[in-house]
Amino acid sequence: MEEYDMNKGVKWVIGIGLVAVVAGGFYAIKQHDKVESKTVTVGIVGDSDRELWEYVKKDAKKDYNVDVKLKTFTDYVQPNKALADGDIDLNAFQTVNYFETQNKNYNGKLLDIGKTYVTPIRLYSDKFKKLGDLPKGATISIPNDPSNAQRALDLLEKAGLLKYNHSVKLPGAKDVTDNPKNIKIKEVQSDQSVSTLKSVDAAVINTNYALDAKLNVDKALYVESVDQAHKGYFNLIATRKGSENKQAYQDVVKAYQTEKTVKHMKDLYGNAEQPAWGKYAE
Fold this sequence. Notes:
Layout: H1 6-37, E1 39-45, H2 47-64, E2 67-73, H3 78-85, E3 90-95, H4 96-103, E4 110-118, E5 122-124, E6 139-143, H5 146-158, E7 163-164, E8 176-178, E9 184-188, E10 202-205, H6 207-212, E11 222-223, E12 234-240, H7 247-256, H8 259-269, E13 274-275
Parallel strand pairs: 1-2, 1-3, 6-9, 6-10
Antiparallel strand pairs: 3-12, 4-12, 4-13, 5-10, 5-11, 7-8
């Protein structure tokens, strides 16, 4: 019978112990990463978006075991800054055009990972019920950020109120070239556009702010067309480059892009919003 070598036995036990400790350590790290990746913070703008995202949160948890935390911002600048700085994981508030313009400020650090909805921008008035009622010399407020300013000018041009210089990269009120009704354009921050209704004849207002203010979108003086020519106004979910393939982030997109979301969208917003992914964007 072979003699038992106690030293070998001790070494073997110690070796097994070390393997177990190391394996346990790797398992703990993996489990930690798994827990961390399952909590996703999404930046949104306004309370109207929050209503829909509350449904998406439930589906993300139920279908993918992802805990979505919502962080609400009051303007269009902070959500991209917060995303670039790593303070949030995703944001969902902006159009393609706005995103492309703002992403330049972050050296292309941000990335579109899925479309959400499209909301036709509208011209509202507290003083007049029809577009034709707007008098000569009327004052109209429009958003002052580059993307929304151009969108507002496009709307006013389609409405037949004015024309502007399309060769200008980021047009504003100063670029109006034909103004037969002598319309006065007042540029304001997007989140202040609703409040200007009290002091102007009409205002071009983004739909999320209109919904937050309980404006009746069906009573707008003029509505933007929705088609592929306006795909730059489709809204999107963004993240940081390098994070786009994280499973939890992809799961949030999948939780959003469902028929249930389409139904909730209709129930909450009526004609104000339309889905902008897959077959809906064709």
